[in-house]
Design goal:
This is MFS transporter. Pfam families: MFS_1 (PF07690). By secondary structure, the protein is mainly alpha-helical. It has two domains: 176 residues, Up-down Bundle (Growth Hormone, Chain: A), CATH 1.20.1250.20; 230 residues, MFS general substrate transporter like domains (Growth Hormone, Chain: A), CATH 1.20.1250.
């Protein structure tokens, strides 16, 4: 599990580092907010999602450690390439390449973990893997901010990409492919891509949690590229004073503080969500969707307060709570989407899940925030700080719809989790 979690950590270092670098990139390349949203969101998510389908098909039949090693090498190389970008189109191509490479990791890893662990331990095991999300976000934002302050944003991309080049061969050496012991599975051809999608989308629980998680991601990922910009634009003098007192530049200070908030609180949320789901799920499997429903709904008032208060210090400190709540879905939801899917297309199940999540959440979330901020700026006399504040609050209103869909899944999860037991005696 250590190497899988470390791989996902690097995945999110390379994915999230652009968030803390957004403001210096915007200033140097003279970009609008919608371009930041496109670069950090849709450009990455579109190719991530599209590439995920064939890579997941490969994961359902091929050697998963090899697939993961190849993916790590590709996205790390493109992250390094971002350091050489001299224009917006060049940076856009680099982020697209990162998305293509990162698409191969999680479908293979999820499928592998499900083969390693029995159903009653899967949420906890997957929570350990998904600790890489907040830890990678922490490392990416802290590393990106500190390195950018000292050496510039280009060097930050370079430093972020190197560890993956080193990790790739270790994945080949350390991880085992358990399918070698199940030759019958390899001889059974999985259904075609369209048939697999139809099979998965017919499972009510799967369908509901995919849409619910995509909406949840639209909030979390939509905020990501703009959180540092929000504090710089709305609490600039206070942030400068705090950074100066800490002996840091603004990017380094925000990268470290936002990274710690996202990373530590997010890690607590991932761990707590998986722990509670496995604990209460033993007696009532509805816990696997009830916990994400409550967590999603509880985060809404937190965001309203954080984006409205006048104190930058309190807003920074307050982010920890919604960051924790916003991460509690990872273990329960990924465990559920694997458990309600046919075993021969579990890689495809994760790919379809990520396709919708990334197109809606990672792709459209940041683009919506950036476009909304630009579109309503005239109402605030072109004050980019106030318009961004309004766009973030508007985006947070998506959370109740996510909670509603998670809650609806309670009525079908028990039936859908037993649907494939005849062919999946694990």
């Amino acid at each position: 599990m250590f190497f899988l979690t470390f791989a996902l950590t690097l995945n999110f270092v390379d994915r999230q580092i652009v968030n803390i670098l957004a403001e210096p990139i915007r200033e140097e390349l003279q970009l609008a907010d919608w371009q930041i949203g496109l670069m950090s969101g849709l450009a990455f998510a579109l190719l991530y999602s599209v590439a995920g389908i064939p890579l997941a098909r490969w994961a359902d039949r091929g050697n998963r450690p090899k697939i993961m090693a190849f993916s790590v090498l590709v996205w790390s190389g493109f992250t390094i390439a971002c350091s050489l970008a001299r224009s917006f189109p060049q940076l856009l191509v680099g982020r697209v390449g990162v998305g293509i490479g990162e698409a191969g990791l999680t479908p293979a890893a999820n499928s592998l973990i499900v083969d390693y662990y029995p159903p009653e331990r899967r949420a906890s095991a997957l929570s350990l893997y998904y600790l890489g999300v907040p830890l990678g976000t922490l490392a990416g934002m802290a590393l990106g901010g500190l390195v950018a302050d000292a050496y510039g944003w280009r060097t930050a991309f370079l430093v972020a990409g190197i560890p993956g080049v080193v990790l790739a061969p270790f994945l080949l050496l350390v991880l085992r492919e358990p399918r070698k012991a199940h030759a019958a599975l390899l001889r059974t051809a999985p259904p075609g891509a369209l048939a697999a999608v139809k099979t998965l989308w017919a499972v009510r629980t799967y369908r509901l949690i995919v849409i619910a998680t995509a909406l949840q991601a639209a909030v979390g990922y939509g905020f990501g590229p703009f959180i540092a910009s929000f504090f710089i634009r709305n609490h600039g003098p206070e942030i400068v004073a705090m950074a100066t007192q800490a002996g840091m530049g603004v990017s380094g200070f925000l990268g470290l503080t936002l990274g710690l908030s996202t990373g530590l609180a997010g890690a607590a949320g991932v761990w707590l969500g998986g722990l509670l789901a496995d604990r209460f799920g033993r007696s009532d499997v509805r816990a696997y969707v009830t916990i994400p429903a409550f967590a999603s709904l509880a985060a809404l008032p937190c965001y309203a307060v954080i984006f409205s208060i006048d104190s930058g210090a309190l807003a920074l400190a307050g982010l920890a709570l919604p960051n924790m709540l916003g991460a509690m879905w990872m273990g329960p939801v990924h465990s559920t989407q694997q458990s309600v899917s046919p075993p021969e297309i579990r890689g495809g199940a994760t790919a379809l899940f990520l396709l919708v999540l990334n197109l809606v959440g990672v792709g459209l979330g940041p683009l919506f925030v950036g476009t909304a901020s630009d579109a309503i700026s005239w109402q605030f006399d072109q004050d980019s700080g106030r318009s961004l504040r309004a766009a973030l609050i508007l985006t947070s209103l998506v959370a109740p719809f996510s909670a509603f869909l998670f809650w609806r899944a309670r009525s079908s999860i028990g039936r859908d989790m037993t649907r494939w037991k005849a062919v999946n005696p694990v």
